[in-house]
Write a structure and sequence with these properties.
Helix content is 36%, strand content 27%. It has 187 residues and is an alpha/beta fold.
Length: 187
């Protein structure tokens, strides 16, 4: 893995995405810090770094997906960054988005983008806390006839997400840990 790019990504996440205070997370847990990864994943440099590092991590793991994607909104820029990076480093990997709720009109899809049944995918996330979003996305992909190789996240909050994913027989690969961000484990 490109260590200088990882260090730059960690610095960018610390600068743009880490807030200190008192926060209630989507899981309902409270925390002394909040990682709003979208402030990094939606930045031009963040997209570039995440695309290159995410694609490298997927390939280092031996996964050969046709697609990357996950639950909207957090997964979207991660997936798009990796898809874009794959154009510079073939083979190409396309992207998809899993809706939180099935679309009520039109084609009434749960999965948008390049997804087709039978394709192999890697589910992506910006931040994994409990693993609930990644599990919802993997269930949607499986229900639609896709095959999930594993899960890639930019940051692991180390609050049970890895254990939950492993219990579902899914491997989690992350780019950054709390230690990389200089943050303590939540009590």
């Amino acid at each position: 893995m490109n260590e200088s790019a990882l260090a730059e990504l960690a610095a960018l996440v610390r600068l743009r995405s880490v807030e200190i205070g008192s926060f209630t997370l989507a899981s309902g847990r409270t925390s002394e810090y909040y990682i709003d990864a979208r402030r990094t994943t939606m930045s031009a440099r963040g997209l570039e770094l995440i695309g290159e590092l995410g694609l490298e991590a997927i390939r280092d793991r031996g996964w050969r997906p046709a697609l990357v994607g996950g639950l909207t909104l957090g997964a979207d820029p991660v997936a798009y960054a990796i898809a874009r990076a794959s154009r510079q480093m073939p083979p190409t990997v396309d992207a998809f988005t899993v809706r939180k709720d099935v679309k009520a009109h039109g084609a009434k899809r749960c999965i948008e983008g390049c997804f087709e049944p039978g394709e192999t995918v890697v589910v992506v996330e910006d931040v994994v806390t409990t693993g609930a979003s990644a599990l919802k996305a993997t269930a949607a992909v499986s229900d639609a006839g896709g095959v999930v190789s594993g899960v890639l996240a930019v940051v692991d909050r180390e609050e049970g997400g890895r254990v939950a994913l492993e219990a579902a027989e899914l491997e989690l690969v992350t780019l950054l840990s709390l230690a990389d961000l200089g943050l303590p484990l939540s009590p």
